[in-house]
Fold this protein.
Amino acid sequence: MINLNNIKSINWEDKSISILGAGRSGLGAFKLANYLNANIFLSDNGKKKINIPKTNKFNYEYLGHTDKVLDADLIIKSPGIPNKIDILNKCAENKIPIVSEIEFASWFSNSEIIAVTGSNGKTTTVNLIFDIFKHADTNVLLGGNIGKPYSENVLYELSQNKSFIHILEVSSYQAEHLVNFKPSISCLLNISEDHMDRYKCMEDYVEAKLNILKNLSKQDVLIYNFDDKILNKRLGKQKNIIPFSAKSKSNSLFNFENNKIICKESCKSLSLSKTKLIGLHNVYNIIAALTISSIYGVKFTKAKNAISNFDPLAHRTEQIGIINGVKFINDSKSTTIASTNAAIRCFEEITLILGGQTKGLINFEEIKNIIQNKNIKRVIFYGDVCLELNNKIKPNKNLYLIQNFKKAIEKSIEITPSNNCVLLSPAFSSFDQFKSYKERGDKFRKILEEYSYAK
């Protein structure tokens, strides 16, 4: 076994590491562990053989996790693997330390970390921070829950023998098994109900998010959304905090007034109309990114230029076409009620396409509140949840039940009049008919392209 309180003294050539999961995160951990010349056992539950040659210091299994995993000094668990599976229970019984991939990678980096988490907006925010820092000629690497695993970026840092600032998107899954992980700046964007198929209750989910703060010291900074009720209640009395807000003039570094984000220090402003980002949720993302860049001394004018040129990310309130005067908005990334609610506020005269697969218990009351929004004129329930939604919710709207995704999109084209908007903002995961929200959004685009071509 290894002592996690004394990581720097470990000779990894003498240690055995079992990695659970051969996805992006697990393979990233494998590459770093291989660089350290550790003895590695990679265990995956998938049906495909792992495409890495076996050696005297590396072996693997697939089709399930066997007790071979237990012959290890350390377990690195990929975020997608549930916490209560048999092999992890056995690891705990054998007192083998279990850590996340980002925890493991952090042991070998001498660079600062900016860690961003939250239920919604993480990806846009870290990309904004990355673009701002690149405009300011700062050495930065982007990774974590987006792009390259943190392990691969740390390996790159070691190969280059120089320091970077690591900008990390951190999911609740990644934050579950942290021990020494210590960001210089931790940013919490918001908390809303999500992943209730993974967590027993909302409090467990909140605790997972807040786990990135467990090693916060006087030298570190916590940035959080002052307008978020859960975060304000939990973090309002923390030290070393800088709140950000789009509604209050508290202690934030930036204000939002008359559709402008105003830097308090310089009194210079950024008009939201000069950016390609729409909606109040993106105001929060921008202010969070500006707050972090300001702490690092990036001039507001450089940050402003980066934000003005920033292109919205795919599948996030992304306009993908206009057919017969109808705007089609791809917001497939919205897999929570909160993110769908944010998208609805951005548009008027909406045909809303909502559905997919549930992540746990469905909050019917919140969905009912969403579809009662005056901006929504027509609703299409699709996917695995459509019948259950119909049984529980009887909206005073034009309602359509169409389980098949393609037919649901085709129906939206048929029923939506000119100068209206079709908004795919599902509020549920995509796994009933697709492998990911990206595949769902791409299918949306393809259906529209085929329809335009057929005309």
In short: The first strand starts at residue 16 and ends at 20.
